[in-house]
Amino acid sequence: MNTFNKGIEKIVVALGWDPSPIGEPDIDLDIIAATYPADAPHGDPAYLVHFDSRSPDGTITLNRDSRTGQGFGDDEVMTLELGRLSERYSRVVVGVVIQQAHGRKVFGEVEGTLIEVREGYDKLARVDFSEVEDATAATVAEFVRDAAGEWRFQPALRGFDAAPETFTRLMGA
What we know:
Layout: E1 11-16, E2 29-37, E3 47-49, E4 60-64, E5 76-80, E6 89-98, E7 114-119, E8 122-127, E9 137-145, E10 151-160, H1 164-170
Antiparallel strand pairs: 1-5, 1-7, 2-3, 2-6, 4-5, 6-9, 7-8, 9-10
C-alpha cells in the first residue's frame, strides 16, 4: 500500500438531538450502518449495525445509544473501522431513522438534530436534516472502497418516508 495515498481508516459518526418537551413522548433516533458485499454493492446489505448489535467482526460498533436525546454532547456514537473491514465488502452506507412508536415523526419535528461524520479531528460532514425535514429516515454518508482498496467518503443526504424496517432495505439502493 502506498502510504502517501492512504484512504480512510477509522470514522466516528455522532448524532445529537434535543429531548421532547415536558409532557410529550420521548423521541428516539437511531444510527444504522449497512455493509454491502463487493459482488452486490447495491443489493441487500450483508449485515446491519444498529442499537443492540455490532458487526460480526467488531469493525462497526454503536458506542452510545440514547432513546431520549437527553444528556450533554453526542446522544449516539458509532465507530466504523473501515481499515479493518474485510476486502469482501466494498460499500458501507450510514443512515438515521426516527423510531415511530408514539406516532409519526419527521426530522422537521425534532429539535436540535445534528449529525457529524469525523475522521480523527477532521469533520467530513455536518448535517442538520433541514434538507430532509419531511422524512422519517435519511442516509447521511457512504463509504466506498476504490480500485486500489482504499476507502473514500461520499456525502449521501437522502430522505425517506419509511418505517425503520423498510428503510434498512431501501437505504443502499
